[in-house]
């Protein structure tokens, strides 16, 4: 995820999550600064066809800047500069508009955060 879209990270066990209601891809919500923030089940949202709930090892969240969304993650490994030449670009964003591309060198997806937020905001469960 481009760092300019991140607001911060926190450990899940440090949050008091409200788990009542919501879509199946929302793990819960927490209040911070008077705002209600949704914690997204990242694996379920991004790769629902391969997601196995029992294997999720979420320990942290990454709060997305200028939104009320946080992505659940297993762990934060730090930041890495990825050169454009190292990215295999997603030439068909219709299927996964949040996927800018992949970087095999670091075995990661390059995430289009504005597209991800737009798809979350437009999801029927959020309307």
Give a description of the structure.
Helices cover 12% and strands 31% of the residues. The protein is mainly beta and 127 residues long. The chain has one domain (3-126). Strands 1-4-5-3-2 form a 5-stranded mixed beta sheet. A 3-stranded antiparallel beta sheet has the order 6-7-8. A hairpin with a 4-residue loop joins strand 4 and strand 5 (69-73). The protein is globular. The chain starts with 5 loop residues before the first strand and ends in a 5-residue tail after the last helix. The relative contact order is 0.18.
**β-strand number:** 8
Please identify the oligomeric state.
Answer: single chain
Q: Approximately what portion of the residues adopt beta-strand conformation? A: 25-35%
Number of domains: 1
Q: Note the main sheet.
A: 5 strands, mixed
List the strand order in the largest sheet: 1-4-5-3-2
Rounded Rg? 15 Å
């Amino acid at each position: 995820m481009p760092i300019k879209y991140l607001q911060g990270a926190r450990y899940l066990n440090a949050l008091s999550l409200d788990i009542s209601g919501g879509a199946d891809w929302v793990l819960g919500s927490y209040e911070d600064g008077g705002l209600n923030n949704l914690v997204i089940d990242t694996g379920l949202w991004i790769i629902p066809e391969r997601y196995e709930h029992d294997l999720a090892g979420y320990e942290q969240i990454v709060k997305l800047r200028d939104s009320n969304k946080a992505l659940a993650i297993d762990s934060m490994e730090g930041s890495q500069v990825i050169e454009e030449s190292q990215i295999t670009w997603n030439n068909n964003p219709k299927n996964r508009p949040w996927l800018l591309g992949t970087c095999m060198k670091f075995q990661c997806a390059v995430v289009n955060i504005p597209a991800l937020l737009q798809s979350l905001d437009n999801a029927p469960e959020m309307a």
